[in-house]
Amino acid sequence: xxxxxxxxxxxxxxxxxxxxxxxxxxxxxxxxxxxxxxxxxxxxxxxxxxxxxxxxxxxxxxxxxxxxxxxxxxxxxxxxxxxxxxxxxxxxxxxxxxxxxxxxxxxxxxxxxxxxxxxxxxxxxxxxxxxxxxxxxxxxxxxxxxxxxxxxxxxxxxxxxxxxxxxxxxxxxxxxxxxxxxxxxxxxxxxxxxxxxxxxxxxxxxxxxxxxxxxxxxxxxxxxxxxxxxxxxxxxxxxxxxxxxxxxxxxxxxxxxxxxxxxxxxxxxxxxxxxxxxxxxxxxxxxxxxxxxxxxxxxxxxxxxxxxxxxxxxxxxxxxxxxxxxx
Amino acid sequence: xxxxxxxxxxxxxxxxxxxxxxxxxxxxxxxxxxxxxxxxxxxxxxxxxxxxxxxxxxxxxxxxxxxxxxxxxxxxxxxxxxxxxxxxxxxxxxxxxxxxxxxxxxxxxxxxxxxxxxxxxxxxxxxxxxxxxxxxxxxxxxxxxxxxxxxxxxxxxxxxxxxxxxxxxxxxxxxxxxxxxxxxxxxxxxxxxxxxxxxxxxxxxxxxxxxxxxxxxxxxxxxxxxxxxxxxxxxxxxxxxxxxxxxxxxxxxxxxxxxxxxxxxxxxxxxxxxxxxxxxxxxxxxxxxxxxxxxxxxxxxxxxxxxxxxxxxxxxxxxxxxxxxxx
Lengths: 327, 327
Prior knowledge:
The structure is a homodimer. By secondary structure, chain A is of the alpha/beta class. Chain A has helices at residues 20-31, 68-87, 98-102, 105-121, 136-146, 177-184, 202-205, 215-227, 248-257, 295-298, 300-304, 308-324; strands at residues 35-39, 93-97, 125-132, 149-150, 157-158, 164-167, 189-195, 239-243, 263-265, 289-293.
């Protein structure tokens, strides 16, 4: 698998890749979309046509006597390719939930690389959503796995080649630096968890601090500081933030603390968030906010009827147009 | 790969596995050790004999024309097996740093399963150190990957079968529950990050809260609450905590907030922590604290001289005896 290797554009100094914010802004403009397709495939809830090996989309069928992990991984690749083919033109990126691939073991990790390649072929940026966070030396290993490559005595081992990763800041700013360095040197980005979309997010993130503000405010300030040196000509930084669409009341205040950050906004649809409430995210421009939708697209037929592909396509186009209209 | 499937012991109700705390206490007693071997293999810093395929420990050699990832993964398995064979008798568990396997892609994930199996064969508990933390549905997928198994239309896919996992609590208590449920139902445990061992840990974890205490105190209270229903006859819970050996000044206070938690204590050696300072961890008994050492064992020959195996064995025995003497 070859890493994407973003090439230098007109705005970048010689030898440096185009900054992530500029790459993203260009892609958003070109595709007229801020929509991110979230792929978190559950082997028991794949689109029915993904279970038919003769469909042939995305990968070779696994032999009928292959082990369950191999057969399930093949089906996950087919499903993901079908979804990408259905809604990709309405999106600017895919967000791959690493947990859903890891649970199929080595076969799942191979499937992850195949799905990333299929997304790239469809012109989409690839966000690896693993929410990794570890001490420096381990964070550097995650950077090798997802963004860069790993030197070995037998030659370099390419990583996933993601255009961006999600990262957990609980271990402090110092532990995000290896991810940022690896991302910045190749025109990729990171999205730091600041205010997540789940019901229990307030448990820790909304704890009021003695010094003022709450934990998520503190994390937002960390994002702004870490991203200061990674802002491209678009005005957008390569250190972004995850801010759940389920907490729209916090969005304007967090945006004010992180004026240059791209906000990755999950939680629309199944989790209750509404695109209409996300306008503050787009203050620095349309690429300032990315609306991530997973089950709301892949499971659209369960609410809207029709084939999975047709329902997903219609819902993606509706959400794309809605977000685009907010600026 | 078969999950370990801890069998019911005398202390467990019929049909329920022995609680993690009891399994751990039994293992600590049987091995006279609270030492955890941390394995975070860097392909460029493996023990020299791991690069010689003819050694034959741990796995088949990869063919000379295999891709770099396959060859590096074979060497990582051999290295890990050599280290386990050298120091395993002085330890009660291994802690596998998932980042170091992930960076070799699918081959690395296969290597992870092989190393876990080798550790189990050596009588060691297996801790999967991935520090995962995600919204509920994704946390459940990580639980399937590391602790349980995944249903698919082609049959059940076994996970790694770890005896315990590390978890990141930034997304709140609700998101730890799927991991705890999966662990508890099979006699496994989880270790929640409370105060990590890295220099930047204070950035977020030591922020003073308006309600009193700091973020790590709040996380410790969360651990105590989540673990209340998971305490076995040993008095130890299946919800433990990661508390860095590099912050000994915090250890007694955090122990007081989590009287039944097993404390996983990384940071001894290379990171500056000292076993001598860890006595408060062992207040509930010897299995109340697990001393995790990675580079301090695997790289012992760099400081002490001799062969890597002899130096690691001597250092492991020294640290084992030192920790054992603290109660």
